[in-house]
Structures are given as structure tokens and as C-alpha cells.
Design a protein that fits this description.
Shape: elongated
Structural class: mainly alpha
Distance between the termini: 49 Å
Radius of gyration: 15 Å
Helix content: over 70%
Number of strands: 0
Largest sheet: none
Number of helices: 4
Strand content: under 5%
């Protein structure tokens, strides 16, 4: 059905990171500062990034698992930075 199914699987973690940003911007504008309704989806999305990387590592064969581990290490580090700034942005002056 899809010409390159591996490519579509590998784009899931970055799309989840983009979803953090897409959620944080309108949530900061609509919801009050420090709202739990704005923070909880960010916590779930960050956990989802780890689950997606574990899935990619599990699906890989042979030495491709090492590639997926390096991809997970780099992307999870960057996703942590995005997640932290998203929480700070949503939190506003609520801290």
C-alpha cells in the first residue's frame, strides 16, 4: 500500500514533538497560566515519544537497531528541550 512503510514509521516521533508545540501555543492563549488541562497532554506526548522510539527499536532488524538507538538518543534529548520549553510557555506566570 505505502511505497516506504519504514519512512512513515520513523516520522512518528518528530510529529509527536511537533504536536507538543501545536498544543502548547493555543493552550497558552486559551487556558489560564499553570492549568493542568494544558500540562497533562504535554506529559502524555513526551511519554509517547519514548514509546514510539521503543517501537522503532523493536521493529528494526540486525544493525539497524543500533541506528534506531542513536536516533532515539538524539531525538529524545531534543524532544526533552522542546517539552521543557512547552511546559514553561504553557505555565506562564503560574509557577
Amino acid at each position: 500500500m505505502f511505497p516506504y512503510p519504514d519512512t512513515y514509521r520513523q516520522i512518528l516521533p518528530p510529529l509527536t514533538t511537533v504536536a507538543m508545540i501545536v498544543w502548547a501555543i493555543p493552550a497558552a492563549l486559551i487556558l489560564p497560566d499553570g492549568s493542568a488541562l494544558a500540562n497533562y497532554p504535554l506529559f502524555l506526548l513526551f511519554a509517547l515519544v519514548f514509546v514510539e522510539h521503543l517501537y522503532l527499536i523493536w521493529q528494526a532488524q540486525g544493525m539497524a537497531r543500533l541506528d534506531q538507538c542513536v536516533y532515539a538518543l538524539v531525538h529524545c534529548s531534543l524532544a526533552f528541550v522542546v517539552w521543557t520549553f512547552s511546559i514553561m510557555y504553557v505555565g506562564g506566570k503560574g509557577f
